[in-house]
């Protein structure tokens, strides 16, 4: 059983999670004190005046649309504000001074979630709270009512589902955390009418251990930044256990700063001794490097990422977590691309994992979600358009005889074999090539002995590979987009366990037969392909990965935009 879990106790299906969330929300409302007004009770003259003033302003917001503002504050969720006040008959919502101050405290602490307090009108709330002078002042301050509602709506929306819409960064993303969510104005009401509005608002932050672990890491990194960060390690020849070198002292200081090395050993001298060796291996494990204790270029590069860089990386992954952790099922397959890992989750527990190879930088594997429906033993391989154009046709034009090298069969539209010598390769292109290229099953087949199909528009799937030696490298960017699995028959065994007579012996027999065989899963299994450059284990340990596709920086810029 693996010791590092990407996911631990997961939430149930979307519908069950939503029902549980709404049940808690209803409880918050039921435990709240009855409001001083109701739709059926007569309102005081002051309340009527505040109500009428709100009506006028809300109607103006409806007309203004996306450019709606309250005074000098541009509203970020104006339509939610409009619907919220329309549903309550335009009566003031924020009339409890202590409750609104508690809400303001949560908004001011948004930095702990990797968000920015200034996005939630904290300065404006501070100014108006100072001028309010009591509950009556709150009710009559129309701008305060609008700004507070907008701030709560924006915060709920972004802390629970993400500030950045993933589609704005990658058009291939197809997971929408808001798809089954209640209307935003309904969630705002749960806060406004809760017994403890501040606690109700804080409760919208994801409680999944991955998210909470990243929050803890962010707090620790910011504390480290306030202390001045960590020292850098000078470049130079690879250092190995037993060496004595002046650079070893810098390594000691660096690892003592982040806790891999006992602080008492930070000044123990230039000798690369056993305690430092253990610390280096721990650092390498935490950064997805081969734990060989050799302090080479990759290890030094990881050590020299500044604390500000790690803070940005954690913020990016907090955002990615918000996109998916609220909708995790009990059982699914998770592929974390920069970790080069695939995990099988059953009943909320990581039951299996192995290494992967993913798309190289020019042919990146996308992040998306689909349902695995079947697997194929001894598959043949149909050459996809990208490989046809960039590899096969390009090679044939150069006289490399790629067809023979890859053992491909050329088929016409009627499925008849075509002699390669009959084709004018010099003028052939992917757009005018009327043939299908297929590689028969076998040990050299590009898909190996089994492929796992979750139909999707990207033609991406999991599969075996004859290039098994490549799994031993630290960075495994070798495929043309699909995901190569190190121990695919082990995965097949776990997917088919309890399904008919599919024992491991039966699987091995099916492979040994050499015959193609398609096996459908009794129940489709979700496959979630994510890009997390920081992951958190069930016991809280962090793993940092290199941003191999360069996706962290655009996400951080979007968070700050």
Written overview of the protein:
The protein has 561 residues and is of the alpha+beta class. An 8-stranded mixed beta barrel has the order 3-4-5-13-11-10-6-14. Strands 7-9-8 form a 3-stranded antiparallel β-sheet, with no helix packed on it. Strands 1-2 form a two-stranded antiparallel sheet. The protein is globular, with a radius of gyration of 29 Å. It starts with 13 loop residues before the first helix and ends with a helix.
Question: What secondary-structure arrangement, pairings included, does this model have?
Answer:
Blueprint: H1 14-30, H2 45-64, E1 69-70, E2 73-74, H3 78-87, H4 97-108, H5 122-132, H6 135-140, H7 142-161, H8 184-192, H9 197-202, H10 209-226, H11 247-257, H12 274-286, H13 297-303, H14 307-324, E3 332-336, E4 341-346, E5 349-359, E6 368-377, E7 381-382, H15 385-397, H16 402-405, E8 409-411, E9 436-439, E10 450-453, E11 462-463, E12 477-479, E13 483-485, H17 488-496, H18 504-513, E14 517-530, E15 534-536, E16 542-544, H19 552-560
Parallel strand pairs: 3-14, 5-12, 11-13
Antiparallel strand pairs: 1-2, 3-4, 4-5, 5-13, 6-10, 6-14, 7-9, 8-9, 10-11, 15-16
Helix pairs in contact: 2-3, 3-7, 3-8, 4-5, 4-7, 5-7, 7-8, 7-14, 10-14, 14-19
Tags for this model:
alpha+beta; three-stranded antiparallel beta sheet; 561 residues; 40% helix
Specify the biggest β-sheet: 8 strands, mixed, barrel
Number of strands: 16
What is the averaged pLDDT score? Answer: 89
Structural class: alpha+beta
Rg result: 29 Å
Low-confidence region ranges:
1-20, 26-41
- Specify the helix fraction band: 25-40%
End-to-end C-alpha gap: 43 Å
| Count of separate DSSP helical elements | 19
Q: How large is the share of residues in beta strands?
A: 5-15%
Coarse shape: globular
Strand order across the biggest sheet? 3-4-5-13-11-10-6-14
């Amino acid at each position: 059983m693996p010791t590092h879990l990407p996911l631990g106790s997961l939430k149930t299906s979307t519908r069950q999670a939503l029902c549980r969330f709404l049940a808690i929300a209803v409880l918050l409302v039921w435990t709240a004190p009855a409001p001083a007004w109701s739709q059926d009770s007569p309102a005081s003259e002051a309340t009527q005046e505040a109500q009428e003033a709100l009506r006028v302003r809300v109607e103006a917001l409806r007309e203004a649309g996306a450019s709606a503002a309250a005074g000098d504050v541009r509203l970020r969720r104006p339509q939610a504000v409009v619907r919220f006040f329309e549903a309550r008959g335009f009566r003031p919502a924020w009339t409890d001074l202590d409750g609104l101050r508690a809400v303001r405290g949560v908004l001011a602490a948004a930095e702990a979630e990797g968000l920015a307090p200034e996005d939630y009108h904290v300065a404006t709330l501070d100014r108006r709270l100072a001028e309010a002078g009591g509950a009556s002042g709150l009710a009559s301050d129309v701008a305060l009512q609008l700004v507070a509602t907008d701030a709560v709506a924006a915060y709920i929306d972004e802390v629970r589902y993400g500030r950045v819409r993933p589609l704005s960064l990658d058009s291939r993303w197809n997971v929408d955390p808001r798809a089954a969510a209640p209307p935003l104005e309904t969630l705002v009401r749960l806060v406004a009418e809760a017994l403890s509005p501040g606690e109700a608002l804080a409760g919208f932050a994801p409680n999944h251990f991955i998210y909470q672990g990243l929050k803890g890491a962010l707090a620790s990194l910011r504390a480290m930044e306030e202390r001045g960060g960590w020292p850098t390690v000078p470049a130079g020849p690879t250092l190995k256990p037993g060496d004595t070198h002046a650079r070893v002292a810098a390594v000691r200081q660096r690892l003592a700063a982040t806790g891999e090395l006992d602080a008492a050993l930070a000044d123990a001298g230039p000798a690369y001794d056993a305690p430092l060796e253990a610390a280096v291996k721990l650092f390498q494990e935490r950064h997805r490097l081969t734990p060989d204790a050799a302090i080479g270029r990759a290890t030094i590069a990881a050590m020299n990422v500044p604390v500000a860089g790690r803070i940005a990386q954690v913020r990016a992954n907090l955002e990615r977590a918000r996109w998916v952790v609220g909708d995790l099922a009990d059982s699914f397959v998770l592929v974390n691309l920069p970790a080069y890992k695939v995990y099988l989750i059953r009943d909320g527990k990581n039951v299996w994992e192995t290494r992967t190879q993913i798309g190289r930088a020019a042919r990146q594997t996308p992040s998306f979600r689909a349902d695995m429906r079947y697997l194929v033993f001894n598959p043949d391989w149909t050459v996809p358009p990208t490989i046809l154009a960039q590899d096969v046709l390009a090679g044939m034009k150069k006289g490399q005889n790629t067809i023979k090298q890859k053992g491909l069969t050329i088929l016409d539209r009627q499925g008849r074999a075509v002699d390669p010598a009959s084709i004018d390769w010099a003028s052939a292109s992917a757009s005018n090539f009327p043939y299908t290229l297929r590689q028969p099953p076998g040990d050299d087949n590009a898909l190996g002995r089994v492929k796992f199909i979750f139909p999707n528009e990207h033609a991406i799937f999991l599969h075996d590979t004859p290039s098994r030696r490549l799994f031993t490298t630290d960075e495994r960017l070798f495929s043309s987009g699909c995901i190569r699995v190190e121990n695919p028959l082990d995965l097949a065994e776990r997917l088919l366990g309890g399904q008919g007579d599919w024992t491991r012996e039966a699987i091995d027999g099916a492979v040994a037969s050499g015959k193609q065989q398609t096996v459908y899963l009794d129940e489709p299994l979700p496959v979630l392909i994510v890009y997390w450059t920081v992951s958190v284990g069930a016991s809280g340990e962090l793993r940092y990965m290199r941003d191999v596709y360069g996706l962290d920086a655009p996400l951080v810029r979007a968070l700050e935009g």
